[in-house]
Amino acid sequence: MKMCPKWRPEKYFYDRFCVQLQNWSKGGEKPALADQDTAYYLSLLEDRLRRKGLNYQLELERTEEDAPSARCFAGEHYSNQWEFASVRKRVVYTKHGRTLYQKKSDQTLYQMTTSADTPEEIGEKPCTCPNCGAVTRTADLVKGCPYCQARFQMSELFPKVTNFYFIRMDSQRSLKQKVSVIISAFILLTFVWMLLQRIVGGEFSLGIILHSLFAAILAGGFTGLILTGPIILLSMILFNSSRDVPFRAIFTKKQIIEFMKPLEPGFSYEYFEGQLMSLLRMVVLSNDVKNLAAFGGKARSDCFDHVIDLVYEGGMTVRKLYTDQDYIHMDLRTYMLDSYEENGRIYTRGDPIDISIERKRNQRPDPGFSIKLVRCKGCGGSFDASFRKTCPYCGRVYDMRNESWVMTRAVRVR
């Protein structure tokens, strides 16, 4: 039996967060590397499980020795890095000491890490106190937390994990095996075809065989390499993801990029996808969406009150993309694999979810934005917008669309 590679928290930031995440699921503290919004998501999950009377345990195993793959995106004052790696995820739900559900599956864990490039310019940005967990200004933590008086160096406050989510996807090793199989298949087919052509033409010798083999390696190998990407992508859509994910999902990234580029030249689809998953989790897991600033509508399926876990299927489709004088609007259908608890029974189902989001035009995304500490445009006061939509100091309505995406609709299709 092959042993799984061990986590190496002393070497990789990615691994360190994974270890902390597992410890949290076993009753430990929230990950110290989590920023305020990531910690808020975990609090929502804790509250949902507590209301259901469930205990949850997450176990993650590395499936490869390689370092996590990474994609970097530079922003104003911040740098964002998406890291992802294949993991074997095992979840266990228990109630009153009895196991209700457990499942192990191979998934890809995406993790976004945000670092401060210009620490002197982010003093007004929100940050979670590593000592007491309070959300306050970064400058306050350097001078001394107003709640617990602990002081920190900027290097202790950044980098932070600002988002993470799971996608049900083949492991990197499995993808490499598929690449090898596809290229080998093209080489073999090309070799057989060329050899048969020569035989039919009355030519056959050792030299002909070697020449056909050499030509097949060049032509077949190159053709297989070119077609590997589309073939793997098609197989993921048809076989690896939910049967609900339609083929046209492979064109969504291109559609959204072409729509957003004129509106936001530095637009990153991967960063946007992460924002969308974070927003959807908040709306689905919140028990009070009417006071959640990230939700600006009334259409939310009541069945979401029973969701206890969300896994992104890696696919979404466009229903409508448009702008008006003030806002950018997107109507999308996301494909999720959600876990529910109802009447003591836990089950998993594929969930196509229709969502609508909107955001102010001509507004640059701020990687340091946090719903846990927003600033009122009227009086300048700071407050937590995760459970209120009006400023507690002056009563002004807070519109999060001026700073980030807001969801106005989240409805399960069936």
Compile the SSE list and pairings:
Elements: H1 13-25, H2 36-52, E1 55-62, E2 69-74, E3 78-95, E4 98-116, E5 126-128, E6 135-137, H3 138-143, H4 154-157, E7 160-167, H5 172-200, H6 206-240, H7 252-260, H8 269-285, E8 295-300, E9 307-323, E10 327-342, E11 345-360, E12 374-375, E13 382-383, E14 406-412
Characterize this entry briefly.
With 414 residues, this protein is an alpha+beta fold. The chain is built from eight helices and 14 strands. The chain has helices at residues 13-25, 36-52, 138-143, 154-157, 172-200, 206-240, 252-260, 269-285; strands at residues 55-62, 69-74, 78-95, 98-116, 126-128, 135-137, 160-167, 295-300, 307-323, 327-342, 345-360, 374-375, 382-383, 406-412.
Description:
The chain has 414 residues and is α+β, with helices and mostly antiparallel strands. The chain is 31% helix and 32% strand. It has eight helices and 14 strands. It has helices spanning 13-25, 36-52, 138-143, 154-157, 172-200, 206-240, 252-260, 269-285; strands spanning 55-62, 69-74, 78-95, 98-116, 126-128, 135-137, 160-167, 295-300, 307-323, 327-342, 345-360, 374-375, 382-383, 406-412. Strands 1, 2, 3, 4 and 7 form a five-stranded antiparallel sheet that branches. A hairpin with a 6-residue loop joins strand 12 and strand 13 (382-383). Helix 2 runs parallel beside helix 8 (269-285) and helix 5 runs antiparallel to helix 6 (206-240). The longest helix has 35 residues, at 206-240. The radius of gyration is 25 Å and the shape is globular. The model has no long low-confidence stretch (mean pLDDT 82).
